[in-house]
Amino acid sequence: METLGTTAGKAKVMKWRWAALLRDFELFLLTVPGILYFVIFHYLPMGGVVIAFKSYRYDLGIFGSHWTGFKNFEFFFTSSDAWRITRNTVAYSSLFLLLGIMASVTVALILFEVKSRLAIKIYQTSMILPRFLSWVIVGYITYTLLNPELGLLNQLLGQFGQEPIQWFSDTKYWPYILTASNLWKHVGLDCIIYYAALLGVDPEQYEAARIDGAGRFRQMWHISIPSLVPLIIILGILAMGNLFRGDFGLFYQIPRNVGILYSVTDVIDTYVFRGLRSSEIGMTAAVGLFQSVVGLVLVVGVNLIIKKIRPENSLF
Q1: How many domains does the chain have?
Q2: 47 inside domain
Q3: What mean pLDDT, rounded, does the chain reach?
Q4: What is the CATH number of the domain that holds 284?
């Protein structure tokens, strides 16, 4: 009897699942392109992870190349470049994360105070536009500003009787240039996410605050910002996975791969790219695997910490 009951229960569950599949078939169909994208470009390439443990040769292929164990990792961590590129990657990623959240939340709060729907559309469109420009285009825009001879900034300095600045041979300016470029390109779209969250806040909370005499800044501090905290935490946890990754387009196109600037512009991703160009396939695969493992550990670790402090805001 127990077996018959179990079989009938399983059959009922399967029937329910098929009914759900047929009912939501169009929705499942819409997910197929996304699923195929992840399978083809994210899961199938995982087989190439073995290259990190091999001395890769083109004539032997991935599985025919000789195993070297952790030699590729050892080569990277003992190289003179390991500290520099790791320091730059982590420092820039941390700075971009903190400043990005602060700038995006600030802009979202300002937009939320704008009541004109036409003005909101104009502001949103103008701020989102940089996100859709490739780093190649942004790199050329930056070069028109920083060109040592014909750059707009040096021409402006000349108008005030100042000597032109050799932007591409002086490292002290580049942390500011890279940070400004990253914020300009990403803040527009990021702030829309927070703005959408603010639109979901119950208007009665603001009305009650106004009745109690709270001004706009008090409303922001006690209603708007607390309502954004869960979203900030979730996006912050996800961003931790990229703490050991640098935006290749930003760090390659903006400084134009000038060697004299490597001390402040070289990150793990640009280092890997140069390694691929010099056929250091095994070493670059080892670095990429190192990035992925550290990113996974950071996401899981930070999520566990958040789960201990604020369980309702953890990612999983």
Answers
A1: 1
A2: no
A3: 87
A4: 1.10.3720.10
Q: What are the pLDDT digits (tens) for 262-301?
A: 999 999 999 888 887 877 788 888 888 888 888 889 999 9
Nearest by Cα to 184 from 145, 242, 158? 145
Q: How many residues does the chain have?
A: 316
Most distant CA pair in the chain: distance in Å?
Answer: 96
Amino acid identity for residue 194 in this structure: Y
End-to-end CA distance of the chain: 39
Between the CA atoms of 187, 189, 195 and 199, what dihedral angle is there, to the nearest 10 degrees? Answer: 180
Q: Which two tokens stand for residue 19?
A: 């009914």
Q: 205-262, pLDDT tens digit by residue?
A: 888 988 888 888 888 988 999 999 999 999 989 898 888 888 999 999 999 988 899 9
Task: Print the domain residue range for 169.
Answer: 83-313
Give the closest residue to 148 by CA, choosing from 130, 162, 164, 131.
164
Lowest mean pLDDT among 76-80, 195-199, 219-223: 76-80
DSSP string for 41-61: IIIGGGGGGGGGGEEEETTTH
Q: In whole angstroms, what is the distance from residue 83 CA to residue 80 CA?
A: 7
Phi, psi of 69 (to 5 degrees): 65, -125
Within 56-81, residue ranges assigned H as helices are: 61-64, 71-77
DSSP secondary structure, 267-292, as one string: -HHHHHHHHHHTT-HHHHHHHHHHHH
CA distances from 290 to 40, 52, 68, 248 (A): 22, 9, 16, 17
Closest CA to 209 of 199, 194, 197, 221: 221
**What's the mean pLDDT in 72-99?**
89
Quick check: 5 pLDDT over 60? no
SS3 letters for 159-194? HCCCCCCCHHHCHHHHHHHHHHHHHHHHHHHHHHHH
Output the pLDDT for position 311. 86
Does residue 162 lie within any of the structural domains?
yes
| Residue 173 clears pLDDT 90, i.e. is over it | yes
Q: Is residue 29 part of a domain?
A: no
